[in-house]
Design brief:
Two copies of one chain form a homodimer.
Chain A lengths: L2 H14 L6 H12 L4 E2 H8 L5 H13 L3 E4 L7 E4 L1 H4 L3 E5 L5 E4 L3 H16 L4 E12 L5
Parallel strand pairs in A: 4-6
Antiparallel strand pairs in A: 1-3, 2-3, 4-5
The structure holds a DNA duplex.
Chain lengths: ~150, ~150
DNA sequence: TTCCTTGCAAACGATTTGCATTGGA
DNA sequence: TCCAATGCAAATCGTTTGCAAGGAA
């Protein structure tokens, strides 16, 4: 999605909830849009530069998550990583490096996605669990670490 | 797996690495074997009772993880949950409740498992990422929370 | 002016570590 | 006996919160 379009969509979403789309929030959205996978508060801070205090960053993340603009991800120990919500990026899955912990987004071909969706349907039909979403985590070693 | 068999397998594995299979370690393995999903240190502590200090529990978890007897899981914010490694339990996936955070194991029918395996193969073939395992997280609402 | 937002510092909760003690082979 | 394992207390790390200052409508 073009950055201008992205920001317009986010702004509309935030305005609908009477939340301002401030510079700091815009910076987080921009940075996540440029990333190819979820990023932690520390990673965002480093990339944004302009030494924003971490407490402000965390507050920004809380606000954006509550507005469903970003989604948290917890594939690695001890810290949360965030990415733009799927209504902004499209549905995707994750490659998780078991060495360095970085996470990369992947899209899977439609045929496979249908199979996974069918699997989730099947599970839902045979249990009392109400499924709303799914995420396939492929664990392994990234190029850097191998 | 029968408890006796389980403990024998774990003991063999630990002995091979010159690690003792102590009462505390045995208690963690027993408790995880009785659980239907990954459990946190606090949950294990509560279930084991016998007020074991958390620091000892964490050390036990570290040792068992290093010996590949247990595997950490991070689907929810702020804390790690552990489960017996798949060579002891068999391959499975997870239902994650987005309300209360609890995680439950599920086995998926072989046909679907083959499809997922094929998907992972395909991804591996088209990227420089070396896949070693995968985990499908189905997010939704558990019976309690719905 | 009136709230929302931000910055700073202190507080928190999960986890880790140093060190002295205990216990099993 | 001797080193691994444990308990306790203090330290660490990511994250959250109270409160006062800054900023946009």
């Amino acid at each position: 999605m073009a950055p201008a379009t992205l920001h317009r969509q986010v702004e509309t979403r935030l305005n609908a909830k009477d939340i301002r789309y401030t510079t700091g929030r815009r910076a987080v959205v921009t940075t996540l849009a440029e990333s190819d996978g979820p990023r932690s508060a520390a990673e965002l801070s480093a990339k944004i530069g302009a030494n924003v205090p971490l407490s402000s960053l965390y507050r920004t993340l809380t606000v954006l998550e509550a507005a469903d603009v970003i989604t948290p991800h917890f594939a690695t120990k001890g810290l949360a990583r965030y990415e733009l919500a799927e209504w902004l990026t499209g549905h995707h899955h994750h490659l998780v490096c078991i060495e360095c912990g970085t996470v990369e987004d992947i899209e899977v071909p439609p045929l496979y996605e249908q199979q996974v969706a069918a699997l989730v349907e099947t599970i839902a039909a045979t249990s009392s669990f109400t499924a709303s979403n799914h995420d396939l985590e492929i664990e392994g070693t990234c190029e850097q670490c191998s």
